[in-house]
# Entry
Amino acid sequence: MVTNPVFSANTASLIDLSNLSKVKYSLNNVDFTAIDQYSFGHLLYKSMVVNTTNGSFATPLNLGDGSGLIDIDDATGYAFVASVQKIANGELTTGFSVYKDKALVYQSDFKYGRSISFPVIYNIKNDVVTFYQYFGFDTQTNIDGYYTLNLKTKELKLIDVSSSSYAGTDYQLKDGSVFSVRMDGVYKLTTVN
# Structure
């Protein structure tokens, strides 16, 4: 999905690269800045999935204010959602939740200054997903790094201490290893079973 010349066309186009056919959207109806540029499993617009065949939008989960769809793993049916909530003093806290078949299966706590990053390509095995958490400054001790979450038992386990406020994008491979693209290089991370 790309924007066409904003001042002359004022449209965005969904282009099928196999045959170069297009579905055009008016920029009055589509805010191109809300297209998730890091989603590989699905083309996401806001918290909707774009049907790449006909250009329609589907809402896989009914999410409240302050929540947004991260992605859906088609192989397992798990959907990942990020959430923000304001606490009494006006500060923002973040959390995430996991759904399966539209039912909530996991809800994290909400933490001040937390950023989460799920790998772009999931390989969820035995209901375990690997993800990265980074915490900003806080009065509580939090550990930045890669964690596994067992979605059946709800066990959260730190597997690698890694701190980078500029952690870029992680790409998970079939063997469970992760290519992590960061500001200072590209790293291959492997898990020990």
Notes: The two ends are 39 Å apart (CA to CA). The chain has two domains: 1-118, 124-189. The mean pLDDT is 83. The longest strand covers residues 78-86.
